[in-house]
């Protein structure tokens, strides 16, 4: 689960991580009101510049025109009007982009240097890993590819926990002045504390800036949470913004289906995440393009399969369906019965290929063949992928 920048910064403040002051607006009228009434925009202590930032669940907003600077507070409502309602297309949104429904206005900073600071779960070491870079403002993947020597990373021992020397190592790697070392020690400590206590899966500050006044400030914030832990995080759960999520993915979550929409035209329905990944790879190998990741779980009952079919068919780009089931927990003839019943209820009109393997797979395949439905049956994975690719190409 992802949240907006302004929400992440509110959570950061609770943990003592320094962030700029700001306000959220959802209309130009609201922007005019806060500019005229909020202390942030009035008085002698007001900043020399304000940042007007689109709030969407994607990076690359600045390059897409979603971040603008105002030298005078009177300019802010006009900049809000330029961003609000605009569809931003970035490298993370896909070609359809995301419509901006909220804008965050925050005080600018007198920036001297920019850095990257983040925490992720490293699946290889099975530990939280701290990442820092001198190349703030850049995509960390790009830095890793072109300048790996500019990245600091440290897998943290869960038994040792945090010690101040970790923050000092980061500070030394980034070349920070000694006067800011205590700030960095505290920020790293608080960021790791936030990561653990809020069940995050990824936390990114890009950039973390050093101001000319020798202050470290989290100028941007990107946070993702472990979906499996959101149930025990009521504060986090309340931050979910359904307008930023794909409607089909929202519908799938109601039935505990693991569904992620992709850009292809061959839908996949599989029981097991690993098998689903392999299925998508084999479809691509056979010359097709997967339209989704969909794991229906070990049970694959009639009700589950029927809801999965409905969600798949809700995507207008889908031109064919490949069902790939391994019958381990549930026998294949029961799965075949569920597929037949669900296909009859949903009334599928596009090519459908089903590959069954596992317990009583032969009986299950025979049931599918004799069902009277337009279902192609396969025994091997690549065979099934070839059949659905050819069926979709022939259906054009």
TrEMBL record:
Record keywords: ATP-binding, Ligase, Magnesium, Metal-binding, Nucleotide-binding, Tricarboxylic acid cycle
Gene3D superfamilies: ATP-grasp fold, A domain, ATP-grasp fold, B domain, Succinyl-CoA synthetase domains
InterPro entries in the record: ATP-grasp, ATP-grasp_succ-CoA_synth-type, ATP_grasp_subdomain_1, Succ-CoA_synthase_bsu_CS, SUCC_ACL_C, Succ_CoA_ligase-like_bsu, Succinyl-CoA_synth-like
Cofactor(s) in the UniProt record: Mg(2+)
MF GO annotations: ATP binding; magnesium ion binding; succinate-CoA ligase (ADP-forming) activity; succinate-CoA ligase (GDP-forming) activity
All residue ranges annotated as the ATP-grasp domain in the record: 9-236
Source domain of life: Bacteria
Catalyzed reaction equations: succinate + ATP + CoA = succinyl-CoA + ADP + phosphate; GTP + succinate + CoA = succinyl-CoA + GDP + phosphate
Pfam name, any one: Ligase_CoA
GO terms, biological process: succinyl-CoA metabolic process; tricarboxylic acid cycle
Gene Ontology CC annotations of this record: cytosol; succinate-CoA ligase complex
UniProt-listed Enzyme Commission number(s): 6.2.1.5
Pathway named in the protein's UniProt entry: Carbohydrate metabolism; tricarboxylic acid cycle; succinate from succinyl-CoA (ligase route): step 1/1
Transmembrane regions listed in the UniProt entry: none
Binding positions for substrate per the UniProt entry: 271, 328-330
Ligand binding (Mg(2+)): 206, 220
Cofactor: how bound: Binds 1 Mg(2+) ion per subunit.
HAMAP family from the UniProt entry: Succ_CoA_beta
Subunit structure: Heterotetramer of two alpha and two beta subunits.
Family named by the database record: Belongs to the succinate/malate CoA ligase beta subunit family.
Described purpose of this protein according to its UniProt entry: Succinyl-CoA synthetase functions in the citric acid cycle (TCA), coupling the hydrolysis of succinyl-CoA to the synthesis of either ATP or GTP and thus represents the only step of substrate-level phosphorylation in the TCA. The beta subunit provides nucleotide specificity of the enzyme and binds the substrate succinate, while the binding sites for coenzyme A and phosphate are found in the alpha subunit.
The protein's name in its UniProt record: Succinate--CoA ligase [ADP-forming] subunit beta
Organism listed in the record: Leptospirillum ferriphilum
Taxonomic lineage of the native organism: Bacteria, Pseudomonadati, Nitrospirota, Nitrospiria, Nitrospirales
Gene: sucC
């Amino acid at each position: 689960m992802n949240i907006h920048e302004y929400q992440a910064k509110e959570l950061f403040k609770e943990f003592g991580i320094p962030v700029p002051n700001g306000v959220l607006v959802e209309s130009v009228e609201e922007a005019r009101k806060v500019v005229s009434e909020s202390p942030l925009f009035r008085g002698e202590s007001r900043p020399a510049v304000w940042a007007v930032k689109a709030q969407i669940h994607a990076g690359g907003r600045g390059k897409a025109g979603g971040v603008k600077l105002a030298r005078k507070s009177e300019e802010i409502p006009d900049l809000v009007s330029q961003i609000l309602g605009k569809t931003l297309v970035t490298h993370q949104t896909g070609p359809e982009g995301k419509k901006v429904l909220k804008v965050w206005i925050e005080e600018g900073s007198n920036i001297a240097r920019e850095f990257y600071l983040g925490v992720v779960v490293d699946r290889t070491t099975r530990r939280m890993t701290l990442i820092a870079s001198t190349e703030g403002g850049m995509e960390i993947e790009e830095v890793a590819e072109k300048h790996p020597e500019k990245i600091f990373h440290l897998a943290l021992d869960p038994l040792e926990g945090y010690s101040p020397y970790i923050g000092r190592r980061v500070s030394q790697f980034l070349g920070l002045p000694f006067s800011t070392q205590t700030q960095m020690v505290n920020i790293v400590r608080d960021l790791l504390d936030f990561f653990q206590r809020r069940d995050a899966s990824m936390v990114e500050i890009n950039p973390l800036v050093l101001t000319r006044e020798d202050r470290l400030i989290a100028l941007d914030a990107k946070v993702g949470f472990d979906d499996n832990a959101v149930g025990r995080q009521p504060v986090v759960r309340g931050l979910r913004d359904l307008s930023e999520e794909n409607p089909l993915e929202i519908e799938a979550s109601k039935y505990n289906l693991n569904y992620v929409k992709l850009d292809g035209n061959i839908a996949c329905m599989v029981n097991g995440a690993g098998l689903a990944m392999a299925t998508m790879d084999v479809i691509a190998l056979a010359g097709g393009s997967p339209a989704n990741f969909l794991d229906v779980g070990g049970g694959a009952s009639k009700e589950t399969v029927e809801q999965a079919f409905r969600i798949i068919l809700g995507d207008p780009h889908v031109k064919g369906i490949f069902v790939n089931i391994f019958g381990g927990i549930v026998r294949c003839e029961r799965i075949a019965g569920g597929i037949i019943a669900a296909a009859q209820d949903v009334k599928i009109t596009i090519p459908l290929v089903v590959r069954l393997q596992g317990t009583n797979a032969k009986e299950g395949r025979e049931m599918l063949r004799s069902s009277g439905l337009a279902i192609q049956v396969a025994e091997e994975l690549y065979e099934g992928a070839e059949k659905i690719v050819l069926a979709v190409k022939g259906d054009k």
